[in-house]
Design brief:
By secondary structure, the chain is of the alpha/beta class. It is built from 20 helices and ten strands.
């Protein structure tokens, strides 16, 4: 049994995700393996539904198996997010391709750009450093350096959100010398982060906002964008008090602890710590701290990384260690064959006894997953067993 993998969050699962499933099948891949973020996501927020609920949604709508992307990578910046995901996928048997949505370009565009970035020379590094002097963010400074080098890469290709991740996936595949083939699929409908809700293909951002509205119009649009099983859960959605908890965690944390998070640098921990005391409101704090260098998503990730206790050194150590595949959900009718097909490279965790297979250097990575699950349970006021696999 061979798989096409998809690295995802499904926050929430919607028609655009079903469209990607369809395109994967049209490309000739019969089986889909999803590597999904757990209870907290890369934009620096809690997920709208528990990871087991979102994993169930994926299998009910066409996936064969959903594996958890460890929290250490799920809440890290693009390079570490992609690196951790590819590290796990490359260690599994049976994974032949990696599909991802993109705004433009094809496979060769992504591979060529990834190759160019992997060959950073002295001139490129000098340009990158110069571009960041005025406070420009790393991604924008890097893109400007690429364009200055005269490499045959379009500016819009470099700056689109999904393309940025796609390039990082390809870089990680090259660096790990993986045999997995990238499969970019052009997005349809709303762009990433677009706030306006559309009739059939809206962004996750727009759908999350609609889930907070009470009006008939919002509910009608949700019905046209979400599969029936997801809609049923969306109708009972209530936001969690994460923002207050993250702010409390920031105020009580020593500055040196904040500084160790993957996204923190240049003394930003001092500004965040000071601002939190005089602006004891999550959104106000961010609004007063964001600037050209420190993007909103980066600041939100720092607060989330601090809340979970994720440190840069640990994440880099995990990248060099043999990890694990924690199975959240699997298709019941051929579960044994699915699990057998991916086993052999790293421990595949499908029952509590399987956790005894974890090596010493990976236990701390799994401990972060346990902590993230416990914290989400505390925020939601519900209990979920971490040692669980759902058969759908």
């Amino acid at each position: 049994m061979k798989f096409c993998a998809i690295i995802c969050e499904y926050n929430p699962f919607h028609n655009g995700h079903k469209y990607l499933f369809q395109k994967v099948k049209e490309a000739g891949y019969e089986h889909i393996l999803c590597l999904m973020s757990g209870n907290f996501v890369q934009r620096g927020e809690e997920a709208v539904f528990h990871k087991y609920v979102r994993a169930r949604h994926a299998v009910e709508n066409g996936a064969d198996i959903v594996i958890e992307l460890p929290a250490a990578f799920a809440v890290s910046p693009a390079e570490l997010f992609a690196g951790g995901a590819v590290h796990i996928l490359s260690s599994l048997r049976g994974v032949e391709a990696l599909a991802f949505g993109c705004e433009s370009g094809g496979r060769e565009d992504f591979l060529r750009t990834a190759l160019l970035l992997s060959r950073e020379d002295k001139t490129f590094r000098s340009l990158l450093k110069e571009n960041m002097k005025d406070g420009t963010s790393y991604i924008r400074a890097r893109n400007a350096a690429i364009l200055s080098m005269g490499w045959n890469v379009r500016e819009e290709f470099l700056s689109s959100p999904n393309n940025i991740l796609g390039i990082e996936y390809c870089r990680a595949l090259m660096q790990s010398e993986s045999g997995i083939v990238p499969l970019p699929v052009l997005r349809t409908g709303s762009g990433h982060g677009e706030q306006e809700i559309r009739e059939n293909f809206s962004s996750s951002t727009a759908l999350r906002a609609a889930m907070l509205e009470e009006g008939k119009h919002a509910k009608k649009l949700l019905r046209s964008n979400l599969p029936a099983d997801v809609l049923e859960d969306a109708e009972t959605y209530r936001p969690l008090p994460y923002k207050r908890a993250a702010l409390v965690s920031l105020i009580r944390s020593p500055r040196e602890q904040i500084a160790r998070t993957p996204d923190c640098s240049e003394g930003l921990e001092n500004r965040l710590s000071s601002m939190a005391k005089t602006n004891p409101d999550f959104d106000l704090l961010l609004a007063k701290t964001v600037n050209k260098r420190y993007t909103l998503s980066r600041l939100k990730r720092i607060l989330l990384q601090n809340f979970l206790g994720v440190e840069l050194k640990a994440v880099k150590d995990f990248l060099a260690a043999p990890l694990y595949a924690n199975v959240l959900a699997v298709r019941e009718e051929n579960a044994e064959e699915i699990l057998s097909s991916i086993s052999g490279g790293i421990p595949v965790i499908a029952r509590k006894s399987d956790y005894s297979l974890l090596k010493k250097d990976t236990l701390s990575c799994f401990a972060l997953d346990l902590r993230a699950n416990d914290l989400y349970n505390a925020l939601s006021g519900t209990y979920s067993n971490e040692f669980l696999t759902i058969f759908v």
